[in-house]
Amino acid sequence: MATGGKQRDGRAERERVRVYQARQAFHAGQARRRARDNLIAGIGGGVLILAIVAGQAAYFMGGPGAPVPTPSATPTGTATPDPSASPTESADPGVTPSVTPSATPTP
């Protein structure tokens, strides 16, 4: 009757080994899943950052945020100032500045 205890011990030991191996497989699967999820998140984040940068560049280069091109002034000739004119003289002698305010304000 001594064999009953050995079978029970062997059965319990086999169960502990089975549970231990299942736990090891579960943890190994979790580690693989975390690594895969981190890789996917990194790739997704990189794509998102590239899309944001491309969108900003497109907006500011061609969209409503683009600067309006202004025509450049072409030089028609160099005007030399008249050395005989005094600084207090007006450029147009027929125009005199008005000092008195107008009666009605203009919008």
Could you characterize what this model shows?
The protein has 107 residues and is mostly helical. It has a domain at 7-65. It is built from 1 helix and no strands. The longest helix has 60 residues, at 3-62.
Structural descriptors:
107 residues; mainly alpha
Unreliable stretches (pLDDT < 50, length at least 5) are none
Q: From N to C, what is the helix and strand string?
A: H
* Largest sheet report: none
Number of helices: 1
Q: Give the percentage of residues in beta strands.
A: under 5%
Number of strands: 0
Summarize the helices and strands and which ones pair or pack.
Blueprint: H1 3-62
In short:
The protein has 107 residues and is mostly helical. Helix content is 56%, strand content 0%.
